[in-house]
Inverse folding.
């Protein structure tokens, strides 16, 4: 039997166990933004590189460094010999233009095939910065090649920083950090890349092509700067590299994050979580949905539902709204959220508002901070054994319940904006409305009317339109229904519902329009100055991007 | 991701000109000791090295390429736009049937080889000296060539390798070989 074991007791109830406390000043949040010890070392290496550049700009220090370089190179030149010199020449080919191009284009191709565009853009940007930065530094420094030893083999351009070492390091670090999942395999790949770069650097030193200080600067720029850039722009905790099937929007909730979620729930909401596991991920791309297992003091198990929001979800929301505006026009004020905190606050606020309006929505339990401004968890009750509205034929009671939800939304001055089968659930003999993240308070009037149309279309997937229409007339006037379908068109129907309607075969929207009184279409705002400007800007950006690709490949040395 | 895309595009727009524009460096001045040291390393046998003594008004230098075996750069006058003079230092050259000119370096010889007088004044100028040679490939409009040739020869000087060796030793403690 379907039950709604959803609601653990509220404040003061059994599931709220008094772990709640204020985080004292200075205490780290549940999941501090991790800065690995190695990242600190890389930052130190970057600082050392900057200091080295500063020293080379001061004449007496440059003279001293050059002398020290000369002594080291004289010592290293003793490694040259009949068999070793050809071997070092062979190792030097690791930094050849062909080697770098093969590695770089392979990385770009894999990133394109895997559709990891953020990693791809980061890779291209890092390469561009490293290559142009190295070139600019070389021109500024204007350092000649080592004079203390005879140079064996060809060379090109100024000596500082060592160009081939810089580029091979940047390309290798990029490949490792964008293609290899973190963990043992990435560690092995990093060791392999380090060995290749070290072999190239050592061979060029023995052959007298670079000063040791050129090599140090090259490693600082090509390796340390690249690693820091990838860890900053595409941190593994949020943008993990993975090849298994699944939605990239969903975060891993095991390990440190799982522990942090438990701790945050306990300290901030007084909820003792026994388990934290992914739930219903197939139907969610805007957050990481979770099922939280709890146990009541009397031993009964309980369950809560939670949505984990992180930076990638905030960015996905921005991208979604931008794409929607360019594709469809500004349907209404779909302003993107400025921070993850705002996103979580908004959903929690809407849950409370709808609860106060006595709508059958999950009960809100608040939200917790996992990492300040980066990760928040919105907690609500869990609907046990719930079924989608479109999964079986509906009864008249269920039709009335679903339509009454729209009537209550109207009365509360709210539009849900995402009414579709997966958001209207049947559980415990009642109809429930979930996923209120898209809802708007005081929306445009046509948007409220569209909620009614979408609910009637959802019901019509499993019931006759005539029956739905006549049941609707008990709660709405014929003019209300006419307005709902006069305002509806493809763009106003959520994609899941649109897909189901297409598969259903009948033109249900036309059938409802025939049943309702005639009404001319309601104009919904499709064009705005903002849409024109953004669309034009995006077109210009795409054209500039295409024009820049050729130039980029030239500058970055990829052609 | 859109923000990252935007940032990358901005980076491209900002950085591309530095790589592709006319801001590429040219032949160094005769006082740029270490930069000339690199040119000296490119052709270790060359007894003299080309450098900019003073660029006449309207001239600029760009496209410097220094690598083992050769150095080349371009000199362009605003009165010969699109027709840069290509300056190249190498270990040797063959002036062929060129006409001898007064030498521009002690112990060296200079030649002029014209391939055309009209409608354009084009050809090559050679500075040949022990262990090296500097060639200047020019292509000027006929009516302006006299002034442009004079300016070209005054712009590019030849610095003796032994003088550069002394400067490098004094300034940076570097022993320029051979």
């Amino acid at each position: 039997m379907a039950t709604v074991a959803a609601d653990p007791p509220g404040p003061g109830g059994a599931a709220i166990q008094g772990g709640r406390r204020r985080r004292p000043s200075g205490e780290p949040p549940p999941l501090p933004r991790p800065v690995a010890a190695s990242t600190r070392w890389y930052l130190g290496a970057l600082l050392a590189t900057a200091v080295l550049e500063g020293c080379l700009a001061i004449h007496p220090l440059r003279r001293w460094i050059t002398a020290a370089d000369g002594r080291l190179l004289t010592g290293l030149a003793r490694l040259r010999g009949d068999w070793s010199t050809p071997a070092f020449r062979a190792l030097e080919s690791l930094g050849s233009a062909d080697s770098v191009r093969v590695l770089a284009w392979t990385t770009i191709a894999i990133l394109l095939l895997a559709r990891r565009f953020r990693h791809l853009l980061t890779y291209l940007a890092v390469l561009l910065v490293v290559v142009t930065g190295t070139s600019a530094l070389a021109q500024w420094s204007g350092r000649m090649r080592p004079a203390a030893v005879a140079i064996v083999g060809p060379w090109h351009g100024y000596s500082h920083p060592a160009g081939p070492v810089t580029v091979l390091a940047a390309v290798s670090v990029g490949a490792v950090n964008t293609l290899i999942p973190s963990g043992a395999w990435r560690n092995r790949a990093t060791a392999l890349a380090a060995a290749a770069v070290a072999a190239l650097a050592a061979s060029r030193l023995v052959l007298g092509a670079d000063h040791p200080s050129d090599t140090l600067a090259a490693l600082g720029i090509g390796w340390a700067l690249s690693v820091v850039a990838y860890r900053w722009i595409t941190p593994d905790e949020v943008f993990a590299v993975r090849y298994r099937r699944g939605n990239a929007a969903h975060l891993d909730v095991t390990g440190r994050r799982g522990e942090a979620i438990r701790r945050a729930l306990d300290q901030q909401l007084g909820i003792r979580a026994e388990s934290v596991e992914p739930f219903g991920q197939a139907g969610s791309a805007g957050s990481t949905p979770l099922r939280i297992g709890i146990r009541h003091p009397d031993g009964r198990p309980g369950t809560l539902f939670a949505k984990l929001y992180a930076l990638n979800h905030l960015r996905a929301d921005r991208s979604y709204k931008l794409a929607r505006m360019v594709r469809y026009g500004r349907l209404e004020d779909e302003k993107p959220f400025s921070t993850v905190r705002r996103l979580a606050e908004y959903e929690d606020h809407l849950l409370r508002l709808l609860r106060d309006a006595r709508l059958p929505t999950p009960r809100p339990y608040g939200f917790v901070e996992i990492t300040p401004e980066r990760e928040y968890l919105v907690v609500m009750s869990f609907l046990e054994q719930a079924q989608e509205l479109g999964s079986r034929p509906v009864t008249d009671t269920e039709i009335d319940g679903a339509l009454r939800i729209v009537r209550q939304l109207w009365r509360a001055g709210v539009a849900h904006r995402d009414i579709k089968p997966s958001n209207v659930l049947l559980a415990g003999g009642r109809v429930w409305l979930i996923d209120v993240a898209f809802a708007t308070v005081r929306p445009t009037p046509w948007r409220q009317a569209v909620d009614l149309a979408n609910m009637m279309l959802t019901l019509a997937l499993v019931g006759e339109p005539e029956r739905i229409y006549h049941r609707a007339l008990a709660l709405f006037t014929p003019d209300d229904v006419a307005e709902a379908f006069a305002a509806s068109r493809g763009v106003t129907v959520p994609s899941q519902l649109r897909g189901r309607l297409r598969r259903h075969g009948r033109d249900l929207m036309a059938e409802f329009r025939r049943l309702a009184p005639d009404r001319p279409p309601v104009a919904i705002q499709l064009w705005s100055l903002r849409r024109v400007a953004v669309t034009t800007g995006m077109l210009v950006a795409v054209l500039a991007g295409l024009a820049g690709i050729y130039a980029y490949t030239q500058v970055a040395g990829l052609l | 991701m859109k923000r990252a895309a935007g940032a990358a595009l901005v980076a491209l727009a900002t950085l591309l000109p530095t790589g592709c524009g006319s801001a590429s460096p040219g032949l160094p001045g005769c006082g740029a000791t270490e930069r000339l040291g690199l040119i000296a390393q490119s052709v270790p046998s060359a007894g003299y090295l080309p450098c900019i003594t003073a660029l006449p008004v309207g001239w600029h230098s760009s496209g410097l390429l220094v690598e083992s075996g050769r150095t080349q750069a371009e000199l362009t006058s605003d009165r010969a736009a699109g027709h840069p003079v290509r300056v190249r230092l190498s270990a040797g050259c063959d002036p062929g049937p060129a006409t001898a000119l007064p030498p521009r370096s002690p112990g060296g010889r200079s030649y002029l080889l014209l391939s055309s007088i009209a409608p354009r004044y084009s050809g090559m100028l050679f500075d040949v000296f022990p262990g090296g040679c500097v060639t200047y490939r020019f292509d000027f409009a006929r009516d302006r060539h006299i002034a442009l040739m004079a300016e070209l020869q005054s712009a590019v000087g030849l610095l003796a390798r032994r003088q550069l060796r002394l400067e490098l030793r004094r300034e940076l403690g570097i022993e320029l070989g051979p």
